[in-house]
Specification:
Distance between the termini: 40 Å
Helix content: under 10%
Shape: globular
Radius of gyration: 13 Å
Number of helices: 0
């Protein structure tokens, strides 16, 4: 059983930057593809970014964050990161880290991830 714990989010002005981290325990971290999702009030949870298992480092982003956000992982620290730059008010949401099925490929669907962090609020003011 994998447990995921996210860092605190925060409040930032539009155009600013923020880095989220998520640390895993209870499993062999490097086996799991990792992802970030977000959920704004009144909206469904949506895919943000994912990174492949192992050390390959393949990534995939939603169109809404491509070029602004960067996902990375440190397998020695059991941690996945989301660097968010050029933030916009529409990025305001609760952000969730997630772990997919061991050794599986790139996935963007909520149902394709088995383990979830507790969620952390990111608020971008205009």
């Amino acid at each position: 059983q994998v447990q995921l714990r996210s860092s605190w989010g925060g409040l930032v002005q539009a155009g600013g930057s923020l880095r989220l981290s998520c640390t895993a325990s209870g499993g062999t971290f490097r086996r799991y593809p990792m992802a970030w999702f977000r959920q704004a009030p009144g909206k469904e949870r949506e895919f943000v970014a994912t990174i492949s298992w192992g050390s390959d480092g393949s990534t995939y982003y939603s169109d809404s964050v491509k070029g602004r956000f960067t996902i990375s992982r440190d397998n020695a620290r059991n941690t996945v990161y989301l660097q968010m730059n050029s933030l916009k008010p529409q990025d305001t949401a609760v952000y969730y880290c997630a772990a997919g099925r061991p050794f599986s490929g790139i996935a963007t669907g909520v149902h394709e991830y088995d383990y979830w962090g507790q969620g952390t609020q990111v608020t971008v003011s205009s």
